[in-house]
Design a protein that fits this description.
The complex is a heterodimer of chains A (113) and B (117).
Chain A (H helix, E strand, L loop, with lengths): L2 E5 L2 E5 L4 E8 L3 E9 L6 E6 L5 E4 L2 E5 L3 E6 L8 E9 L9 E2 L3 E6 L1
Parallel strand pairs in A: 2-11
Antiparallel strand pairs in A: 1-3, 3-8, 4-5, 4-9, 6-7, 7-8, 9-10, 9-11
Chain B lengths: L4 E3 L2 E4 L5 E6 L6 E7 L6 E7 L2 E4 L8 E4 L6 E5 L8 E8 L11 E2 L3 E5 L1
Parallel strand pairs in B: 2-11
Antiparallel strand pairs in B: 1-3, 3-8, 4-5, 4-9, 5-6, 7-8, 9-10, 9-11
The chains are: A mainly beta (113), B mainly beta (117).
């Protein structure tokens, strides 16, 4: 069964304190792994897509990496405005051509000034 | 350009009533998805359209749930004879395509919060 697990569930950081969020996945072949940011009361906002092990993507203070079993979202010198829930999702090869994403439960990040 | 829009943003209904939730995808996006999101959880897939064709409805919980996209643009998710357990945030997403590579990123709307009393 395709499954995505994110850890930790919640993370509190001081402004400037770098850390990483983990997304572990079990799928029958991976067509893509997606990271989203979700602010309270809003829909998920697309951040990155990763397709193969070893791939990396960066955007401002965020960097996403991918291995064959997990992905990390590294946050460098975070600011309070980075506070949000970060969602990881996989697109399994077994999903045919439907684009059906399987999401993890998310990591809620709070960055204190 | 405009993002994915959904209406209504909030819907309160009584148990047993039918509800219709609307999604207007990003212009030019051929793929449209419906998800349901419980508080503190990631979205859970319900159904998928490629243009007007419903190609995957494996996530619909039961036959009270149905969806259509008759002209390949706006979609409606209908829940008949609503029950309290149907209360949730219903989210719509759209993408250029699904074939892999650039273009299958899904962009989400703000959602419709459904409350069944």
């Amino acid at each position: 069964e395709d499954q995505v697990t994110q850890s930790p569930e919640a993370l509190r950081l001081q402004e400037g304190e770098s850390s990483s969020l983990n997304c572990s996945y079990t799928v029958s072949g991976l067509r893509g792994l997606f990271w989203y940011r979700q602010d309270p009361g809003k829909g998920p906002e697309f951040l990155f897509t990763l397709y193969s092990a070893g791939e990396e993507k960066e955007k401002e203070r965020l960097k996403a990496t991918l291995t064959k079993k997990e992905s990390f979202l590294h946050i460098t010198a975070p600011k309070p405005e980075d506070s949000a829930t970060y969602l990881c999702a996989v697109l399994p090869a077994g999903s045919g051509n439907t684009g059906k994403l399987i999401f993890g439960q998310g990591t809620t990040l709070q960055v204190k000034p | 350009g405009a993002g994915v829009s959904q209406s209504p943003r909030y819907k309160v209904t009584k148990r047993g009533q039918d509800v219709a939730l609307r999604c207007d995808p990003i212009s030019g996006h051929v793929s449209l998805y419906w998800y349901r999101q419980a508080l503190g959880q990631g979205p859970e897939f319900l159904t998928y359209f490629n243009y007007e064709a419903q190609q995957d409805k494996s996530g619909l919980p039961n036959d009270r749930f149905s969806a259509e996209r008759p002209e390949g643009s706006i979609s409606t998710l209908t829940i008949q004879r609503t029950e309290q357990r149907d209360s949730a945030m219903y989210r719509c997403a759209s993408s250029l395509g699904t074939s892999g590579g650039t273009g299958n990123e899904q962009f989400f709307g703000p959602g419709t919060r459904l409350t069944v009393l």
